[in-house]
Amino acid sequence: xxxxxxxxxxxxxxxxxxxxxxxxxxxxxxxxxxxxxxxxxxxxxxxxxxxxxxxxxxxxxxxxxxxxxxxxxxxxxxxxxxxxxxxxxxxxxxxxxxxxxxxxxxxxxxxxxxxxxxxxxxxxxxxxxxxxxxxxxxxx
Length: 140
Ligand code: THU
Hints:
It is a single chain. This protein is an alpha+beta fold. The protein is built from 5 helices and 5 strands; from the N terminus they run H-E-E-H-E-H-E-E-H-H. The chain has helices spanning 2-14, 53-63, 86-93, 111-114, 121-128; strands at residues 26-31, 36-40, 69-75, 96-104, 107-110. It has a 5-stranded mixed sheet with strand order 2-1-3-4-5, with helices on both faces. The protein starts with a helix and ends in a 12-residue tail after the last helix. Tetrahydrodeoxyuridine (THU) binds at residues 18, 21, 23, 25, 41, 43, 50, 52-54, 84-85, 88. Residues 18, 21, 23, 25, 41, 43, 50, 52-54, 84-85, 88 line the site of tetrahydrodeoxyuridine.
């Protein structure tokens, strides 16, 4: 599984649009229904609005039917494991299976190890008293 994810992430990385940083990133993940999703970074002349590879991956996840991410790999331009940035850890967390695994440069880690005490829908529900998840396709 990790070899396939790394291969898919590397394919995505080759499609990256990174004319400013020249730092290409590709990400791939296995969904709990067996689907594979991927993404690459897409930069912009407005440097601050660059889209990380993980954003493309999560967009594909939602567009193709949603589900929970169970395994994730991210590679740099050399095809080596790349560490997801802090913002992307939160983006991934929202769609993570509770036991999600990530192939990090230092080895395989769980979502709770890469983002301890992560902020989730449950933290909002605790205060608002509302149901934890917003209705599918509905308004908050
Ligand atoms: N980048 C990602 O795509 N994902 C990460 O988690 C780390 C950073 C991209 C954003 C930018 O296009 C380039 O890498 C350099 O920061």
